Amino acid sequence: MNSEEHKEIDLAKWLSGELSPEEKHVFEQTDAYKTYSKIINATEKLNDPAYDEEAVLAKIKEKIAAQPKVRKLKFRYVYTAAASVIILFGLYFFLKNSTISHRTDFGQQLAINLPDGSEVKLNAKSTLDYDKDSWSNDRTLHLDGEAYFKVTKGSPFKVITDEGTVEVLGTEFNVDINTNFLEVQCFSGKVNVTNAKKEAHILTKGKAVRTYNATVTNWTFNTSEETWMSGLSSFTEMPLLEVLDALEDQYKITIKNKEVFAEERFTGRFVNDSLDVALQTVFEAMDIDYELNTNIVTLSKK
Predict the structure, then answer these.
(1) Contact 43/52 with Cβ under 8 angstroms?
(2) Which residues, 6 or more positions from 89, have their beta carbon under 8 angstroms from its beta carbon?
(3) Cα angle vertex 85, ends 82, 87, to 5°?
(4) Pairwise CA distance, residues 136 & 248, whole Å
(5) pLDDT at 256 over 50
(6) What is the pTM of this model?
(7) Bridge partners of 190?
(8) Could you name the CATH architecture of 232-301?
(9) Burial class (CB in 10 A: 0-12, 13-18, 19+), 137
(10) What is the CATH number of domain 99-220?
């Protein structure tokens, strides 16, 4: 047996706890032990509570025990497998830990300061993620929901969504994202919006664009008007289904029979601090009957 095979056998026995005190002392002087110890130490520094070293070692031991007794075990493969498992776990949790995630619940809003001084205000039932380690070179965020951005000048700033991408250098803008829906309003500076069909739209102050079920709509708005950040959710020719989604997110309610009004559009606003007033404002304007029972709103045509 050559020295390399002897090291692999010692590693396998060490993993399974079969080394005697004398054998363990000798093995701890080898390069194989030192290499594995470095991997373990680097992984422990991650401090991720989801990582369980004992569980990983147990799985490796199970694989060793499961080998057929009549076959000669290739211990170099055990060594490689052990190292690979630890490295992969370490890499996964290292990458995971570098991601900053922000979440809001029903009716919640959240102010976020980004590493470069940019500001984000996250609306209800929204998520925002970015990589803090690469931020200085790559100002990229992932958004699901609605957020208002105030971006400091610098490298390109990207907001990636399932329905398209918004890219700026320094500006203020609002992004609202939902399934088959992307709306961007520019409050200052210039914004480049690319929807899911790779169609690009350049927005300047007071300009807005919406892609809804592959249909694109452009319009102009007054940047001084109140928005959801000041307690009023405002809409311009908005598909009513999106308005109803916004009501559900704001007030933690469920609205039934929405599909009946799928073709309707709403221009107006609702308050974010009174469910009764919000429902009355929207449905009276749309000439829709509704019934509120606890947190269930049932719609019907008049």
Answers:
(1) no
(2) 43, 51, 56
(3) 105
(4) 37
(5) yes
(6) 0.67
(7) 204
(8) 3-Layer(bab) Sandwich (3.55)
(9) exposed
(10) 2.60.120.1440
